[in-house]
Amino acid sequence: MRSPTELTAWQKLTEHKQEMASIEMKSLFEADPKRAEKYTTKAAGWTLDYAKNRANEKTLSLLNDLAKEAGLESAITGMFSGAHINNTEDRSVLHIALRASQAQETLMVDGVNVLEEVRSTLKQMEKFVAQLHSGEWKGHTGKTISDVVSIGIGGSYLGPKVVAEALTPYKKDDINVHFVANIDGSDITGKLKQLNPETTVFVISSKTFGTLETLSNANAARDWFLSNGGSEAAVSKHFAAVSSNVKKAVDFGMAEENIFPMWDWVGGRYSLWSAIGLPVAIAVGMENFYELLDGAHQMDEHFRTAPFEENLPVIMGALGVWYINFHNAQTHALIPYDHYLRAMPAHIQQLDMESNGKANLLNGDGVETDTGPIIWGGAGTNGQHAYHQLLHQGTRLVPVDFIAPLASHNPIGEHHTQLFANCLSQSQALMVGKTLEQAEQELRDAGATAEQVAKIAPHKVIKGNRPSNTLLTDKMTPATVGALIALYEHRTFVQGTIWGINSFDQWGVELGKVLGTDIFNRLVSDSDNSALDASTQALIKAFKKAQA
Ligand SMILES: O=P(O)(O)OC[C@H]1O[C@H](O)[C@H](O)[C@@H](O)[C@@H]1O
């Protein structure tokens, strides 16, 4: 297995980095009046402006060569044809099948047409969603359902929660959808306080049906139901499950027809398009869920067929590699200028960090390069009054993706124009910065003395030349939100492929789970802890003392 550092394009990029070291983005714009036009590309309702990057034609062409040399073309073909590209678990990676066009009839994987299973599950979802909204689905006392609580964690929580929130303007009024994830009892306790057991349905979302947090919360919900007028026989009217482990869900008390399947070829963090997205479908209706799938499919088709020079996930992925591996960027920020999309960074954080937080090549050899960055971010404009200081003047290079709709769902006053102006001005400020001369002049214009100018001006200097992408769409709709998330899924895959790692397993999560069970057992027993490290021993003692 080759390390990416052995690729010819990687070596050329290392040299090219030196050539680019003294070139400022500002001068690239001055030298090429067509730069913005050249470095703008569109797909699936999104326009990507990537002109504000430390890249010229040579950079982009070398990054393109890198992606090709790393085998991205065959990796894409492999993914779309159902090859077992998740090599450590020997599985296909087929979130793309969950949103395949209705025109496609077959996608055979290991002798099974997965599209048949996908479509019959969508039909099952349609029926369930329709029954809830029409009022046909009744609780055990004959009342219609007013609230649905989704219980899940990780990929069985973040994607659906973020998308349901992003699609707030499309929400149906008759049913409120809630999400519970944390094992901290405060999460479910707070939710249950607002609910009536006669009119509440719980959807337990867990691919494995073995996740501690989800099962603990599901049991708490069932206990609450049973101790507030419910009965074992009525559990099936108030509980549904999404899982690949049907037996465990049946053992819990679910009626088999209320168990929605999923498959081992869908990774948790890529699963919102499956029945794991049921809470979204309930919140916004099945027709909007189909629009969401269609938007993602449009991005899939773009990713699969567009030349790399115009391919949004490839461009964004390769530019990310440029900053991580050639400019030592440790983090990457996502800043949506859209209130409803404010939680998106948390979903992309899981998607990317669980996918590319890896230190081994596909064959198990250790990597020699940095891999996935720390993904973080939050809503613009709020962040401007918090962490943007570091983006502008901190010592670290943080590439940023700005994401904004051209039109708002809530066009009051000048709000949207102000919001959009802030989005543009941040990317502009990151690039142009402020020189010492400008800072000095600004102070003089404000009437500062020469002494004050000398003292303050250096603090006002902003070096600039900080890169960003801007992603624009006409409006946040189910289709454009679907396409946006699919874009980030494929961007993650592009980077994982360039680094030569498996983006689709997550072995690192296991150790914490195993040790968590061990420590839990120690907290509830009189075990001999002397073999543990002194710090853990002392912390266990503190907990036990507090419980005594
Ligand atoms: O859906 P579940 O099986 O309950 O898993 C929920 C989550 O837990 C795990 O720890 C994984 O790290 C996530 O990828 C997964 O989405």
Structure description:
This protein is an alpha/beta fold and 548 residues long. Strand 8, helix 11 and strand 9 form a beta-alpha-beta unit. The protein is 48% helix and 11% strand. The protein folds into four domains: 4-70 and 306-428 and 476-499, Rossmann fold; 112-290, Glucose-6-phosphate isomerase like protein, domain 1 (Rossmann fold); 433-466, no CATH class; 507-547. The strands form three sheets. The protein has a six-stranded mixed sheet with strand order 1-2-13-12-10-11, with helices on both faces. A five-stranded parallel sheet has the order 6-5-7-8-9, with helices on both faces. A two-stranded antiparallel ribbon has the order 3-4. The structure holds 6-O-phosphono-alpha-D-glucopyranose. 6-O-phosphono-alpha-D-glucopyranose is lined by residues 153-156, 206-208, 211, 214, 268-269, 354, 506, 509. 6-O-phosphono-alpha-D-glucopyranose binds at residues 153-156, 206-208, 211, 214, 268-269, 354, 506, 509. The active site is at 354 (proton donor), 385, 513.
